[in-house]
């Protein structure tokens, strides 16, 4: 049947937005239902960038370096290297897609659950262990969020960037202006 119908309600959502699913069938089904997320995808948004098996294979430098010297490309919840210039560009491009194609007013750049601070040379000095388990990565994460927001403000000054204060970045950052 080739038919288009408009939902009776402005906002239609099913628990967690399936548009972030890695399954194309799930995402298409969600869109075909007319489901949307009025205020954007407000959860661990970086998982939309780090969960791709193809990207894990092609861009291991986008992923956190673990203490054992391996990149976090095999974990269930792989973490990003927030100092990676390529990952920053990928995040900005993802936000542009959400803003321009899906009309989202806000995009989440919140790290995945189980946050682990990257141990690469660029990230190592950004951990502040003296702030304890609630703030040891606050400056690291919130500086990344600010860099993404600064880039997006150049092209989309009316849009917003989201990150929840959570896990090791719960305390306010000390180095973000």
* Mean pLDDT over the residues: 86
**Secondary-structure-derived class:** mainly alpha
- Numbering strands along the chain, what is their spatial order in the largest sheet? 1-2
| First-to-last CA distance | 54 Å
Radius of gyration: 17 Å
Query: How helix-rich are the residues, as a percent range?
Result: 25-40%
Question: Given the C-alpha coordinates, what overall shape results?
Answer: globular
Number of strands: 2
Helical element count?
A: 6
> Which range does the strand content fall in?
under 5%
Largest sheet: 2 strands, parallel
- H-E string: HHHHEHHE
Unreliable stretches (pLDDT < 50, length at least 5) are: none
Which short descriptors sum up this protein?
single chain, mainly alpha
Task: Characterise the protein shown here.
It is built from 6 helices and 2 strands, in the order ααααβααβ. Helix 4 packs across helix 6. It has helices at about 25-30, 45-50, 55-60, 85-100, 120-125, 140-155, and strands at about 105-110, 160. About 30% of the residues are buried. The termini are far apart. A two-stranded parallel sheet has the order 1-2. The chain is mainly α and about 180 residues long.
């Amino acid at each position: 049947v080739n038919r288009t119908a408009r939902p009776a309600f402005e906002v239609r959502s099913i628990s967690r937005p399936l548009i972030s699913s890695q399954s194309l069938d799930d995402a298409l089904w969600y869109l075909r239902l007319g489901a949307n997320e009025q205020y954007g995808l407000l959860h661990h948004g970086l998982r939309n960038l780090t969960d791709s098996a193809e990207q894990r294979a092609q861009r291991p430098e986008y992923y956190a370096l673990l203490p054992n010297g391996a990149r976090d490309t095999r974990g269930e919840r792989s973490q990003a290297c927030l100092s990676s210039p390529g990952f920053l560009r990928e995040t900005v491009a993802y936000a542009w897609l959400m803003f321009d194609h899906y009309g989202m007013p806000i995009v989440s750049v919140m790290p995945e659950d189980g946050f682990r601070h990257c141990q690469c040379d660029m990230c190592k000095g950004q951990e502040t262990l003296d702030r304890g388990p609630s703030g040891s990565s606050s400056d690291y994460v919130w500086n990344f969020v600010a860099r993404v927001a600064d880039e997006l403000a150049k092209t989309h000054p009316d849009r917003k960037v989201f990150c929840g204060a959570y896990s090791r970045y719960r305390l306010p950052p000390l180095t973000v202006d």
